[in-house]
């Protein structure tokens, strides 16, 4: 578990974008288990959460979550509903995302953490717009993931109470 | 393949829940064609001569009008970023988006064309050929358009730039398609034009998704 901190503009997002295979690197390379970044093997092992919500307002929370999860791995609808329940969005499955609040939108994306099979999680400001209860749920999920041998790199400006976290200051 | 169908149905669902985005170009298509008889002449002889050209130019501009939206929303909300980080083939995902675009603009244009053809006194044979050329060439319009749309995805107010990029590539389609219709009106053979349009379709089908994928990756970096 690595928490990346730094002032605005210090390159936290750029670093995550490079690791996620969105941005190109000028020098050097990124490898994970012998697989280069942008290779299919690498990309199927990551879960990337960017700054933007990645939700379409015209789709319901469940439809949005379903599509985003399927981009990584085909997921059963039952699991998706359980994920929405875990993140505290039960009752909002069929609500169009345009009607959700900023925090609820964030929760829809973060529900993906509960169905993701990816080993490496790259989360850019996962706690933005979340209420304390939401932060707690996500923190618990991150600890659980790391306890099961997963990796998580996240950026945040908030102090987080997560145990076993290493901090990288840019 | 599964992700292709899922992307297609997602795009169709988003568009159908926000119908103004698909109705705008179609309305533009119908209105612009309907204005010609008022401005030029309501005579059957004059109109039937220029009908094919008018319908083809209007449909091309209507497609151009709708292209801006092809990647724009997914770029703004970050879905495109998720598509790039996915392990699925990006050209396949783009092909699904192009298919959705064609189903939402190309197909309605093809279905509306006989009505507008009658409106402009095009004869039965002319209407038939017009529909065949549209069926062969509107997919090419969406495919080639996707290259332009992916290049300008991050640029604000890029309508002008898109036209400049794409219109030159559309010109051969326009020439061959409208000449096919006018030759058919004189009872001449049109095999050559149809073969050319088919060749153009195959060529763009093979190249456009890949070129768009590269352009999108560059735009998002």
Please provide a written account of the structure.
The complex is a heterodimer of chains A (170) and B (221). Chain A is an alpha/beta fold and 170 residues long. Chain A has a domain at 38-129 and 140-159: P-loop containing nucleotide triphosphate hydrolases (Rossmann fold). Chain A is built from six helices and seven strands, in the order E-H-E-E-H-E-H-H-H-E-H-E-E. Chain A has a five-stranded parallel sheet, sandwiched between helices. Chain A has a two-stranded antiparallel ribbon with strand order 2-3. Chain A is globular and about 45 Å long. Chain A starts with a strand and ends with a strand. The model of chain A has no long low-confidence stretch (mean pLDDT 84). Chain B has 221 residues and is mainly alpha-helical. Chain B has one domain (2-220). Helix content of chain B is 86%, strand content 0%. Chain B has helices at residues 2-17, 20-39, 44-67, 69-77, 79-85, 90-119, 124-151, 159-185, 191-220. In chain B, helix 6 crosses helix 9 (191-220). The two termini of chain B are 27 Å apart. The relative contact order of chain B is 0.14. The mean pLDDT of chain B is 92. Chain A binds chain B through residues 20-24, 40-41, 43-44, 46, 48, 50-59, 63, 67-68, 70-72, 74, 96, and chain B through 2-3, 6-7, 10, 13-14, 17-18, 73-74, 76-79, 81-88, 220-221.
What is this structure's SSE topology?
The complex is a heterodimer of chains A (170) and B (221).
Chain A: E1 2-5, H1 12-20, E2 31-32, E3 35-36, H2 40-43, E4 46-49, H3 61-72, H4 77-86, H5 102-110, E5 120-124, H6 132-147, E6 151-155, E7 166-169
Parallel strand pairs in A: 1-6, 1-7, 4-5, 5-6
Antiparallel strand pairs in A: 2-3
Chain B: H1 2-17, H2 20-39, H3 44-67, H4 69-77, H5 79-85, H6 90-119, H7 124-151, H8 159-185, H9 191-220
